Amino acid sequence: MADDPNVMVPPSISSAGEVLTWQVADAGERQRVKLRGEINENADFSDLTTHLSGDVDLDLEGISRINSCGVREWVNFVRDLRNVRTLRFERCSPVVVLQLNTIFNFRGRAKVGSFLAPYVCESCHADEYRLLVVDEHFPERHARQHPSVPSFRCQRCNGVMMFDELPERYLSFLAEEGT
Questions:
Q1: 105-130 residues labelled b (16+ CB within 10 A) or e (exposed)
Q2: Which pTM was predicted?
Q3: I want to staple 83 with a disulfide (CB 3.0 to 4.6 A). Which of 4, 44, 53, 151 is the partner?
Q4: Top-level CATH class of 7-175?
Q5: Dihedral angle at the C-alpha atoms of 79, 21, 14, 167, nearest 10 degrees?
Q6: Cβ contact 120:113 at 8 Å
């Protein structure tokens, strides 16, 4: 299988909780924060909040689980980013997409730049997550029509990859104003 940064094989699920960690890096004019682990009642964003300002991208690919207490912590975190001028969610994991579709104020004032979407190969049944860039793959999202999902070829057998969710449900966050 070719190494492609836009393809992610679904991780195996572990029963042990993964502690939330982050790395902050300056990427030109924007700060980039890569988050990894579970967002739960133990999530403490206070230190991270004080380090963020200006234009910020949150890379959410590594978020593996969010429970109800974690949703509360996250909503408060996003709300309290007072020194942040623009906020963008990038590489949103399927766990994050579920919250975007379920919790009204989960993204706060952030824009979603990209997210991982589940695909399955019609031929070999391989599961992959593909990175979908909102502006590139969904330019029609403001037209109030159901977005169509892009098609891909399987990394393993070159078969046709099919979107493995109901598009109108998985992509419903795209209809929100500001995305």
A1: ebbbebebbbbbbbbbbeeeebebbb
A2: 0.87
A3: 53
A4: alpha beta
A5: 40
A6: no
